[in-house]
Specification:
Helices cover about 50% and strands about 15% of the residues. The chain has about 290 residues and is an alpha/beta fold. Helix 13 packs antiparallel against helix 14. The chain is globular, with a radius of gyration of 20 Å. The model has no long low-confidence stretch (mean pLDDT about 95). The structure holds ligand NA7.
Length: about 290
């Protein structure tokens, strides 16, 4: 069933997601802060809106995928924001990674407008977004998730529903905490092995045949060994996610000591690196 879909935030993940919505036959209205990024989608059949409000006015389903909490607040509540135009019975789906508290605030604002909300962060990176094979973690009502399935199915292959509003974001922050620590641990172990005069590849070979085998090894170990960090998932966003995990942990009184230590390392590399790099660049902390 074709739906009227709006998409706000055409970044590394957002744009391929929006393109797949269009390819699946839905009507697509788009808005991006830097307008040029919408141009190719318009050539492919989307309509460019002048503001997030206009996107909302023209859509049954509004998707947002922006960098961080301030960016989401800006597109939802800023001047000409989504909340000014959101239609009754429409569904706002946020695929940015933000705090569960912000997700619940967005859900409450939608409810005031008789609209529905789902927090729906994703995993799978640009590769998964391009293939339409993202994995979604969805917080909100199950019947709303079912209602927007025709749209989500264009972008993803698996949909988990861990609970009510904010649950998707909670799971996403927990997952990214693990990825950040895994890559940090890999970088630290490589520093040990290389510092002892062995080739890093020797460690990777053994890891791949051991209990320590993990998917991040396939993608991130070659980056670290080559010292080449073209962003697939930028370090600035992983740094943001670690901050969000610690913020949540502080609110609910759960200690996350390893995450706190890792965030300091990501913070040091972020502060010392001018270009946009992948989070595997955390290894630069040990590379002199
Ligand atoms: P990108 O490629 O950094 O894209 C970020 C997007 O967010 C991009 O469209 C930005 O617009 C937009 N953005 C950032 N700040 C604002 C403000 N203040 N107002 C409006 N729009 C804004 O990120 P990804 O696509 O890789 O990731 C998106 C989310 O998914 C993020 O939460 C990840 O953690 C997961 P721009 O083009 O810069 O004008």
């Amino acid at each position: 069933m074709a739906m009227k879909v709006g998409f706000i935030g055409l970044g590394l993940i957002g744009k391929p997601m929006a393109r797949n919505v269009l390819k699946a036959g839905h009507t697509l209205v788009v808005w991006n802060r830097t307008r040029d990024k919408a141009r190719d989608l318009v050539e492919e059949g989307a309509t460019a809106a002048g503001s997030p409000r206009e996107v909302a006015e023209k859509s049954e389903v509004v998707l947002t995928c922006v960098s961080d909490p301030p960016a989401l607040e800006e597109v939802l509540w800023g001047p000409k924001g989504v909340m000014e135009g959101l239609k009754k019975s429409s569904v706002l789906i946020d695929s940015s990674t933000v705090s569960p508290a912000l997700a619940r605030r967005a859900a409450a604002a939608c409810a005031e407008r008789m609209a529905e909300f789902l927090d729906a962060p994703v995993t799978g990176g640009t590769w998964g977004a391009e293939k339409g094979e993202l994995v979604f973690m969805v917080g909100g009502r199950k019947d709303v998730l079912e209602k927007v399935q025709p749209v989500l199915a264009a972008m993803g292959k698996r949909f988990f529903h861990p609970g009510g509003h904010g649950a998707g974001q909670t799971i996403k922050l927990a997952m990214n905490l693990i990825l950040a620590l895994q890559v940090d641990a890999l970088a630290e172990a490589l520093a040990l092995v290389q510092g002892a005069g062995l080739e890093g590849e020797k460690l990777i070979e053994v890891l791949q045949a051991s209990m320590a085998r993990a998917a991040v090894l396939d993608v991130k170990a070659p980056m670290i060994l080559a010292g080449s960090y073209v962003p697939s998932f930028p370090l600035r966003l992983m740094h943001k996610d670690l901050g969000l995990a610690l913020e949540l942990a502080n609110q609910i009184g759960v200690p996350l000591p390893a995450t706190a230590a890792a965030r300091e390392i990501y913070n040091a590399v972020k502060g010392a690196t001018r270009e946009d790099v992948d989070y595997a660049a955390v290894a630069k902390f040990w590379q002199k």
